[in-house]
Amino acid sequence: MEHVDVLIVGAGLSGIGAACHLRRRLPSASMAIVEARSAIGGTWDLFRYPGVRSDSDMLTLGYSFRPWRGSAVLADGTSIREYIRDTAREYGVDRLVRFDSKVVAASWDSASATWTVTIDTGAETSTLTCGFLFSCTGYYRYEAGYTPDFPGLAEFGGAVVHPQHWPAELDWTGKRVAVIGSGATAVTLVPAMAEAAAHVTMVQRSPSYVLSLGSRDGLGDLVRKVLPARFAHPAVRWKNALAGLAFYRLSRRFPDLVRRVLRWGARKQLPEGYPVDTHFRPDYAPWDQRVCFVPDGDLFRAISSGKASVVTDKVIGLSRDGVDLASGETVPADVVVTATGLSVLPFGGVEVTVDGERVDFADTVAYKGMMLSGVPNFAVAIGYTNASWTLKCDLVAEHVCRLLAHLRERGLRTVVPVEPDGSVRRLPFIDLQSGYVKRAGAALPSQGDVAPWRLHQNYPRDVLLLRRGRVDGEGLVFS
C-alpha cells in the first residue's frame, strides 16, 4: 500500500497553499494531494456565475509567499483561478494532484501511527496511508448549494438556476431576471446580469449591509511603486489586514455608529428619496453576518440606472410568470436565480474513525482553530469569517509545517489535542448568524472561550499564536 508523510485533501486555494508551504519548508516530506473534482481551483473553478469575484482584497486573499500582481482590489473569478494554478505550477505541486479522487473515509490506527484513507475515483475504490492528514476542503458541499423548497417550482415557465452550478448555455439577454437572495453572490450577480437583461430584480427576505469598495487601492499602489517588492508586499498586506480588523472591531464595539455610516454610504449612491431603510438597513448588527463589498458601488449604479431594483418581501413560491410574494405581488421573471446560500459539509463529509471509534465532529473542540480534540495527526484549514480566507489558512499551513518539523526533530510520531476540562466554556465554531451557519451548527465542532481553544478572528493575535508561538504548548500530547 502506498504511503506518504502528508496527505492534503483538496486542491483549491487553501490546499495548493498548504502544499506550497510544505514544499518550501519541508522539502524532504513525501506528499500527495487528492481532489474530488477534475481541476485545480476549488471554489474558484466551481463557481462560474456572471461577475463572480472575490469579496476580500487580493493582497490578503493572495498567498503570503507569492504576491498578487494584479491591479484589482476585488478580482474576478477567472483571474483568481489562474493565480492558484500558476502558483501550483511554479512550486511544482500541480504534479502531486490526483484528480477525480474523493476521500470518503479516514481511519487512524494508534499502534502504527498512521491514517488509512479510502478514496473513491468513481470507477474504483483505493486506499493509501499517511502519517498526517490535512483537510483543505472548506466547509460547504460542492455537489449542491442550498435551495429552499419553493412551492410551484415546477410550474414556473422559465429557467431556474443556482449560482453554484451555472449552466454555460444560459442566455438572459433581454429577459427579466429575478435573483432571490441578498448576500455576496446576489449583490455580485445583479449588476453583472443587468448589463444584458431587460431588468434584474433582487428579491430579498431581509436586507444585508452593502459597502462600496474602490476597485483600486491608491495607497497600496503607491507603496508598491516606492518600496522594493520584498518590502512592499508584506507592508500592503499588513495594512489591509489591519484595516479589515479595525472595521470589524469597530462594528462589534460601536454597531450603531457603523450602521449609520453604512446607511449614509448607501444613501449617497442611490437616487434622492430611495427607500434605503427598507432595502439596505438590516435588523441585525454589522458583522453578525458578513458585510457585502461591491467594487465601485456597481450594485448601487445598476439600481440608480433603472436596470435593476430591489424588492424586500417574503417569497411564498413560484408561479408560471415569476416569484410570488407574501404581499400578494408577483415579481415577473423569465429567469429565476436562487442565490440562497450554501449547504455546509464539515471537512468534505469524510467519515473519520480513531482506533475503530467513529468521530462525531460535534463532540470535538477546535484547538487553535486548526485541530480537533481527540483526533491525532489531523489539521483543517478554515479561513476567517471576518477577513480574507487566506490570511488564516496561510498561518495554519505554516503552523502545520512547524509541528511536523517538531515531530521529526524529536523522533515523535503522534500529536493530539486533548479535550479541555469543564472549566472551558463551549462556544459555536463559527461566530456568524448567517443562515448556512445556523443550519449546520449541530454538525460543527465547538470552540472554547480561552486560548488555545478560542478562535479569535484576529490576524495579529494569530500571527503570535501560530507563526511565533510554541508548537508544543498546552493542550497537546505528543508520543
TrEMBL record:
Name listed for the protein in its UniProt record: Flavin-containing monooxygenase
Entry annotated with the keyword Transferase: no
Pfam families cross-referenced by the UniProt entry: FMO-like, NAD_binding_8
GO molecular function: monooxygenase activity
PANTHER family: MONOOXYGENASE, PUTATIVE (AFU_ORTHOLOGUE AFUA_8G02570)-RELATED
Keyword field: FAD, Flavoprotein, Monooxygenase, Oxidoreductase
Cofactor(s) for this UniProt protein: FAD
Family: Belongs to the FAD-binding monooxygenase family.
Enzyme Commission code: 1.14.13.-
Species the sequence originates in: Actinokineospora guangxiensis
Top-level enzyme category: oxidoreductase
Lineage of origin: Bacteria, Bacillati, Actinomycetota, Actinomycetes, Pseudonocardiales
